[in-house]
Structures are given as structure tokens and as C-alpha cells.
Amino acid sequence: MSWLVTGGAGYIGAHVVRAFAAQGIGAVVLDDLSSGRSEFVPAGTPFVHGSILDGAAIERAIEEHGVTGVVHLAGFKYAGVSVQRPLHTYRQNVTGTTTLLAAMESKGVDRIVFSSSAAVYGTPDVDLVTELTPKHPESPYGESKLIGEWLLADQAKAAGLRHTSLRYFNVVGSGTPDVFDVSPHNLFPLVFDALLDGRTPRINGGDYPTPDGTCVRDYIHVADLAEAHVVAARRLEAGDTLEPVYNLGSGDGVSVGEIMRAVAEVTGIEFSPETVERRAGDPARIVASGELAARDLDWRMRHTLSEMVESAWQARRAASDS
């Protein structure tokens, strides 16, 4: 079996590709390199430089590489920016997913693992998010991910598509020193870049109703996330029935303040983060249960917070030294 990984040259996608290879499963990468990097694609892995908006390119990739399933990670992933660029976000994430599903149907590929997001929940009013927590996305990005889930469900009814969606929370760390988080908006890259530039990292808000006053989030290691994709793909390939969605959550949150302290300890760089004003719309706490994923996808937290920070720091330093 061979799986097409859209967005496979990105931070998360490259880890998914490596997880497939480690299990002896063939993978083909489709990526337009708008945010991914060709050097993140492992040597020997077929790479198609193309867009999910190009149905013909997707069909050719399916035909040429004997694709039997798809892991769909490609898309525009910046929630804050999506508010200023809603049309771009919907084109990439909704039109792109529709184009992909049409190409899959045309070529008889009926299995897909979809990269969804915690952004579908918006600002939940519960201590522990489950898959049944009401969805109230607060950005075009979150809305587009929820629409993607709907598209899969509708295509399942219409054409027998076999699918599951994995809702990500805060993905960090690195499973290999040659792949690192390149997002200009994520916490770890922002903190590391500040330290490497000799600047003081910032915390947005220090007066939240949490133990140390900073926001509490679910942080999960990217390699653990990638493993869940492999299990989901294998189960779909085997004909097993999966839930339509799974939260890949830890069940226990970590505060931004705790992240900062872990970074100082791992890097050996002493600093006191600067606390600035809250960002609009940032909830005090978002933590999710991963019980369903643990039951069906062998999901578990295999890395400690220190290991998450250390692996991310090593990969970022390796990039700086190369």
C-alpha cells in the first residue's frame, strides 16, 4: 500500500512521512512548498511539487504511485492571519479539500485521514474538551477545518468514503534533528528565535485564572502525533471502523510559564520572560481528553515536557548551524 501525504514537506507532514517509512509503508509527498521545505522530504521518498487545488496533478500522483489512501495535511494553517485573509483560507482549505476528494473519487481511492484542529472548538467553556464538546470556531481557519470534516462525512454517505479526522492541539518538539517547526506564529519557534537573537521572550498575559496566571494549553509531541496517523491509516486499510473524529489531547495541560521555565532549563539560557498584554480571544485554558484516540489509535503521550523542549531546541540549533 502507498499513501499520499498532502503537505508532506511541512513540519508535521515530514514527521508523518517518516513514521510511515518506519513501519514499512510507502508514502508519496504532494506539496506546493508555500510553507513546506523540500529538504524536509526524506531521500528516496517520491515528491510531487503540486497543489491540492490542481486536481489533475493529484490524479497523476495517485496513478503513478499506486496510491491507496491519503493523509491530508496541506492547507493554510494560520488562524490569526485567516481573519485578514478569509477568501484565501477558504480557497486553500475548503476548495482544496473538495478538489482532493474529487480526484480521489475519480481514481477509486476511498480512504483518508484528515488533519483537523482544536480551532473547531473556539473558546470552550469546559475544563476538559471531548469530541462531543460544542463546536464554535472563531476564525475562518477553524471554520474551514470544521467544513472539511463535514465534507468527509457527506462524501462517506454519497460515495462510501472511509475516513477519520484528527483534531490537533499544540504540536511541538521534533522526532528528527533535520525537521523543525518553521511557523512564525507558534510558541516554540518564537521563544527560540528570541533567545538566538539575544531578545527576551514574551508572554501574552499573566493575569489569567490559572495557577501561574499564564494560559494553559495541550502540548503534544509531533512524533506521537505522527504515530497516530500511521495507526489510523493501517486501520482504515484493514477495513476497521473508526470514529469520525478524534482529539489528540493529553488530558493535562501545561502553562506558558511552565514552557518558559522548561526552555530556560533545557537551553541553559537564563531569562525572565517579559509579560505583555493579553491577546484578544485567548482563552485561559484549553485541554482535551485523548481517551477515544487511546482506545482506537494507540494514542499516548510518549514524551515529557522536557523531552519536547529538548528535541525542538536541538533541531532548531541544528538548523542554525547548517
UniProtKB/TrEMBL annotation:
<comment type="pathway">
    <text>Carbohydrate metabolism; galactose metabolism.</text>
</comment>
<keyword id="KW-0119">Carbohydrate metabolism</keyword>
<keyword id="KW-0413">Isomerase</keyword>
<protein>
    <recommendedName>
        <fullName>UDP-glucose 4-epimerase</fullName>
        <ecNumber>5.1.3.2</ecNumber>
    </recommendedName>
</protein>
<comment type="similarity">
    <text>Belongs to the NAD(P)-dependent epimerase/dehydratase family.</text>
</comment>
<dbReference type="GO" id="GO:0003978">
    <property type="term" value="F:UDP-glucose 4-epimerase activity"/>
</dbReference>
<dbReference type="InterPro" id="IPR036291">
    <property type="entry name" value="NAD(P)-bd_dom_sf"/>
</dbReference>
<dbReference type="Pfam" id="PF01370">
    <property type="entry name" value="Epimerase"/>
</dbReference>
<dbReference type="InterPro" id="IPR001509">
    <property type="entry name" value="Epimerase_deHydtase"/>
</dbReference>
<keyword id="KW-0520">NAD</keyword>
<dbReference type="GO" id="GO:0033499">
    <property type="term" value="P:galactose catabolic process via UDP-galactose, Leloir pathway"/>
</dbReference>
<feature type="domain" description="NAD-dependent epimerase/dehydratase">
    <location>
        <begin position="3"/>
        <end position="249"/>
    </location>
</feature>
<dbReference type="InterPro" id="IPR005886">
    <property type="entry name" value="UDP_G4E"/>
</dbReference>
